[in-house]
Specification:
- The chain has 108 residues and is mostly helical.
- The protein has two domains: 31 residues; 76 residues.
- Helix content is 93%, strand content 0%.
- The protein is built from two helices and no strands.
- The longest helix is centred in the middle third of the chain and has 72 residues.
- 0% of the residues are buried.
- The model has no long low-confidence stretch (mean pLDDT 85).
Length: 108
């Protein structure tokens, strides 16, 4: 089977799919249980409901993001304070060591 034959086969499948889709859409419109106006109204309502749900989910996501940011900020502040305390203890220990060294040096 040549390359042209494969392309023709693929084109035929795609064309058949598109024609089937168009026929299905046409039949759905012809046999719809509602009028066009009712269908448009229903679709509009569904669109509004979906948009509202999207807004609510967006607001929830933003709120959750703020909570996570606040928690992270609090954790960073706590770690900063703990680090500052350790630094102060280390500085005090170094100073105590220097003082002890000076006292021992004076004894000699």
């Amino acid at each position: 089977m040549g390359n042209d034959e494969r392309n023709a086969g693929t084109s035929g499948v795609v064309l058949s799919f598109l024609l089937g889709t168009l026929c299905g859409a046409a039949l759905a419109v012809l046999f719809a249980p509602r009028s066009g106006k009712e269908t448009r109204g229903m679709l509009g309502e569904k669109l509004r409901e979906t948009a509202e749900r999207g807004r609510r989910l967006s607001e929830q996501a933003v709120e959750k993001g703020r909570d996570v940011l606040d928690d992270a900020s609090g954790a960073i502040d706590r770690q900063r304070e703990a680090l500052e305390k350790r630094r102060e203890r280390l500085a005090a220990a170094v100073e105590a060591g220097r003082q002890a060294y000076r006292e021992e040096k004076e004894k000699m």
